[in-house]
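Agenda item 2: manganese (II) ion complex prediction
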Amino acid sequence: MIDLHAHSNRSDGKDSPSELVRKAKAAGLSVLAITDHDTTDGWEEAAKAAQSERIGLVPGIEVSTRSKISLRSISVHILAYLPDPTHPGLAGELAKTRESRVSRAKEMVSRLSADYPISWHDIERELSPGATIGRPALADALVAKGIVSNRSAAFDSILSKSGPYYVSDYSVDTQRAIELIRQAGGVSVMAHPLIDFPAGRSELDLPTKHFEQLISAGLDGLEVNHRAVPEFAKQWLRELALKHNLIVTGSSDYHGDGAKDNLLGENTTEPQQLQRILDQASGYEPFL
Ligand code: AMP
Ligand code: MN
Ligand code: MN
Ligand code: MN
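Presented output:
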């Protein structure tokens, strides 16, 4: 079983990279990809653990990007597998994103502190050193204070994008990210496509042009099998993948016990599809 999307505490997961690898082994996986948000910080520890656990490890990153569709700006997550982590263009964008996430989180905490007993110190307690910060760390602090019951409740209420405390952060343009991942020898797969697609719309409304632009820019694959991908869109995505010879993956997007319901191995990737990633990547060696 191959699971190519999981988070450690180097971003918003609950487990250290080695705990994550141990849990992947215990869940019966043969290959795991560690894909923390906008960082490669967990790769080394995960690789060591993978060697002693005798499980395959594919180092990756979930890159936060933004695209303009018509007049809207939407958030798009791109999984980068096996890029060279020292590639200056890619590393520079990731550093810029992480820095912006810190100032954005500080601004959100400052807004929250007007109405809730919460300070930056409370957030720092929820983060391991050097981790990429996001709303999940704010959610964890709100849970620790007894203000909400769990992460999801925080996202549905206080931390909602449409709420008064939300602040947006910097993300690289999606097309640019895809080009940088390619330049860094990595393989790009769009994470959970169409996750934010408005409910009740039909297949006719799907943003075909947007996908085709990203494919022209070098997008290599689509994470079709993920719990958040709308059912009605899965067949459309598979056909798009077939038409453009894209890699199709399936993954859990595990974040640790209690963080999200996603369980390791709940969606998996076919060995031939992993092989295509390995064949196309030249930026970093997997541990297999
Ligand atoms: P941010 O990038 O800081 O805006 O936060 C988005 C991150 O929060 C995503 O990477 C998700 O993993 C996580 N997230 C989004 N919605 C939820 C939810 N309902 N429950 C738990 N985590 C969530
Ligand atoms: Mn996350
Ligand atoms: Mn994501
Ligand atoms: Mn993820």
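Discussion summary: The longest helix spans residues 88-112.
Owner for follow-up: CH.
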